[in-house]
Specification:
By secondary structure, the protein is of the alpha/beta class. The protein is built from seven helices and eight strands. Helix 1 crosses helix 5, helix 2 packs antiparallel against helix 5 and helix 5 packs antiparallel against helix 7. The longest helix has 18 residues. It is globular, with a radius of gyration of 17 Å. The two termini are about 20 Å apart. About 50% of the residues are buried.
Length: about 230
């Protein structure tokens, strides 16, 4: 793995649900925010179907609040919700159009999203359908956003996009050293307490993130790291 180049100023991090980015990516976002970079979040859904036994009308606003607090912990002030239906995110033109419009408005140089692999690791469980649909749509929307003739109603084309990076994939090419910001990443994940409580069981955010980033750090040559797969877009 190579370190992610950091000679850029604006990035957009995209995920399907509130809390998705906090399982590692937020620690990298905290690193970049401390460097003075501008990072915005785009969430496909409000996570309204994410807590068993609680109605989506109650859960959606709760998870939006948790995501906004979580983002603030790592230096992100702009959180955008595309309002696709949680659990029913579909790959297709409407999703690509919404993503392209967000990218055109925010004009990032770097786009970050989550794994769209079928499974979490070679022998892991099946990845959520929303994650799979969104991740592929993000990569396609990068190209869409740069083409003035695709979704012309969605604003002026995106210019200056260099790379997209996909986190939590089984074959990372790059990493971000989060040794100095792992505590911020853990605090960011802990802001999703209502969601974590809804999962049941005994989840320890500190233990989970330190083990996950520590494992990647072994390959990266630092204490804690987050892995990404680079897709050149320039």
């Amino acid at each position: 793995m190579l370190p992610i180049p950091e000679d850029w100023n604006r990035a957009v991090a995209v995920a399907a649900h509130p809390d998705d980015l906090e399982y590692g990516v937020a620690a990298a976002v905290a690193r970049w925010a401390r460097q003075g970079k501008e990072i915005s979040y785009v969430l496909a859904t409000r996570g309204e179907a994410g807590i068993a036994g609680k109605h989506p009308n109650e859960v959606g606003p709760l998870r939006v609040e948790e995501q906004q607090r979580s983002a603030a912990v790592v230096g992100v002030s702009e959180v955008n919700f595309l309002d696709h239906q949680d659990g029913a995110v579909e790959y297709g033109l409407p999703l690509r159009r919404d993503l392209a419009a967000a990218f055109r408005r925010l004009q990032p140089e770097v786009i970050i999203t989550m794994s769209f692999d079928l499974t979490w690791g070679e022998k892991g469980p099946v990845n959520h359908a929303d994650h799979r649909a969104l991740g592929l749509a993000v990569l396609d929307a990068c190209r869409d956003a740069a083409n003035e003739w695709v979704f012309p109603e969605a604003g002026p084309p995106l210019s200056g996009l260099r790379d997209a990076y996909v986190a939590a994939t089984g074959d990372p090419t790059h990493f971000a050293d989060v040794t100095a910001t792992i505590d911020a990443g853990i605090a960011s994940l802990r802001e999703h307490q209502a969601y974590i409580d809804g999962l049941g069981g005994d989840f320890d955010a500190d233990d989970f993130l330190r083990k996950m980033t520590g494992y990647v750090g072994l390959g990266a040559g630092c204490e804690y790291a987050v892995g990404f797969r680079r897709y050149p877009m320039g």
